[in-house]
Amino acid sequence: MAEVVAGAFLSSMFQFLFDKMDSPDIVAFFKAHKLDSVLVRKLKIAMITVTGLLDHAEEKQIVVPAVKKWLDELKDVAFEADDVLDEISYKALRLELEAESRIKKVSRLFSSHNQFEMAVNEKLDKILELVEYLIRQMKALGLTLREGIGDKPSSQRTPTSSIPDDASSICGREDDRKKIRESLLSDGHGVGVICIVGSGGMGKTTLAQLVYNDKKVHGHFDIKAWVYVSEEFNVFKITKDIFSQVSSKTSKANVLGELQEELKQELEGKITDTCGKISSEHGKVEDINEHQQKRKEPKKLLLILDDVWSDKDNEWKSLLKPLKFGAPRSKIVVTTRIESVKSAIHNNQMIIHLSHLLEKLCDGDCWSMLARYAFHNGISNSSHSDFEAIGKEIAKKCGGLPLAVKTIGGLLRSKRNVEEWKKISQSNMWNLLSDNIVPALKLSYHYLPSHLKQFCLLWNISKGL
Prior knowledge:
Layout: H1 5-21, H2 24-32, H3 37-60, H4 65-101, H5 106-136, H6 138-141, H7 174-185, E1 192-197, H8 204-212, H9 215-220, E2 223-230, H10 235-246, H11 256-268, E3 271-272, E4 277-279, E5 285-287, E6 301-308, H12 313-323, E7 331-336, H13 340-346, E8 351-357, H14 363-375, H15 384-397, H16 402-412, H17 418-426, H18 437-447, H19 450-462
Helix pairs in contact: 1-3, 1-4, 1-19, 3-5, 4-5, 7-8, 10-11, 10-12, 14-15, 14-16, 15-17
């Protein structure tokens, strides 16, 4: 964990420096004295550019030592900038006190001011030069610009689907599976919601895939839909994805209200066409008659909303508007790592049938799962015992995370002797050997505001992790 302290600390540090530069005392002092405000502006712009490099540098420093040294140099420059801003703040306060006491002579004040202003301008110029030099090194280090401080990272993950990668390799989730299935098959009024909550890499998506493809569950619902949501909670896109899976028709709506009305009518079992007629689900067109309108039974829907991040009441209100018209005992399964998502759904008058918190796998289940991925059919069963002791150590280091087990297991599959397994077990970077694990396990960390990143890192260091 110590390797990523520099990147997280700098994110927080630069935000702190931006706030200082924009503080009323600093701004007023620059306006009232002969300080080069253009230098400060250039420095701020350069630092904004640097913040776009921090996420990438934070990841890359683990395997490229030169990037870590680059971050260390940047940290030194940030401290220098902080010292200069402190000097300005102190000078401003001192002048304020001197003005009140009127102790100093005017000539002496002017002499002191000129020396201070020249010294500060020189320091700012030097800091700007260093920051710009470090920015010029980004190409040589292979660093690329990303979004700035506090922004959500752009997701690099492949959208999920309803089909599990390898259901036969899943271990330790049978009790979870039964509990979710029982809730899906249970009776109830209206549309019920099941929340599967857990941290990144815990297996929320895999569990949802298992129950979605369960034979009993499949026969229980009239229509099913799987929608990958991720960080951007785009109500129009989500609604259109749902409609495309539950209807045989193609929606041409480009306004959310129209699209929601089409989905509502689909769930009710009828679709109104542009001529003011009703198309039944059997394709027969009938004239609309307010008193004799023929209504089909509402359709019982199973909807999976995978990897949800939004806990905003207004966004959920908009999304749920047409979904409430599903038949009684319809179910919506939401997978999320944010517990407050449940509250946002509940606040919109939805019934929460179950909020299921996924726990980490025990060491035994981790080893069983690791063995399935690592050995597969590549090594004979008679040879498994040679790898078992070291394999159990590796499994324990996966921390109960199924995604970590799966990733490391896939890596071990290509290693054919025990010594190679030992090297992986003893490596300080064993959990970062595959790029596949980085987007899933580090996304939660990157999504945090800068000050919380720093807090988490300091907490882990204090615990000796």
